[in-house]
Write the structure tokens for this entry.
Amino acid sequence: MVGPGPAPLENANPLIYRRSGERPVTAREEDDELPDAIDDREIFDLIRSINDPEHPLTLEELNVVEQMRVKVDDAQSTVSVEFTPTIPHCSMATLIGLSIKVKLLRSLPERFKLDVHITPGTHASEHAVNKQLADKERVAAALENSHLLEVVNQCLSARS
């Protein structure tokens, strides 16, 4: 007896966007003697290549993350990222937000306060998803779930 098979894709034919170019590294950024503040583009560069959990594409290619929706205040140690699911009823929105949050938690100094949330008006359950992503205990509990952590790690792994 054969099982039901893979679930159908929620958004079987998503729009694919062009990747932005790599940011050139300046002489100031290469100088280890000078302080290097974290900026919007640096955060965008960290999250742009996160893999979508449903498609063999990155969050940047699906326009889920955009540099203009990343805000950093290095002096205040805050990072805010808005992400836009490809469809208003995307069941992967929490997983995508969790993947963004985990990537930033793993990449940034502990001094940073992170706010990862859905772009207002773009998801049917944005309030519930944002509440989950803002709850440190829920995020920690989610990362204790080995299956969920494996899925997040797949989203964060480099595609070959």
Q: What stands out?
A: The longest strand covers residues 78-83. Residues 93-107 form the longest helix (15 residues). The mean pLDDT is 88. The beta strands are 70-73, 78-83, 113-118.
